[in-house]
What does this fold into?
Amino acid sequence: MGNAAEFTDAGFEDDVIQSSSPVLVDFWAPWCGPCRQIAPLIDELAVQYNGKVKIGKVNVDDNPETAQKYDIMNIPTLLLFKDGEVAERFIGLPPRSKLEAALQSV
It folds into this structure.
């Protein structure tokens, strides 16, 4: 695990929904090739946006409740939360520029 936080079913409400700052959540699994591809970018963004946007990951195998609640059918799926609501949804491997534009908009 790199610079991104690890979110769980138990802490999701406090860590993400109740967060005073925007939160980017990467829904992933260890066996998912594209998830491993995007992981370095997620870690880089966590450093780049430290203090502005909280960035973390949810392992869908270990935290099925949260994945089910947000209808995660494909991974990687990235959800950008603002004020406890989903502001943006990215499925697959979005370009860095698209993610940065979304992070800057919140």
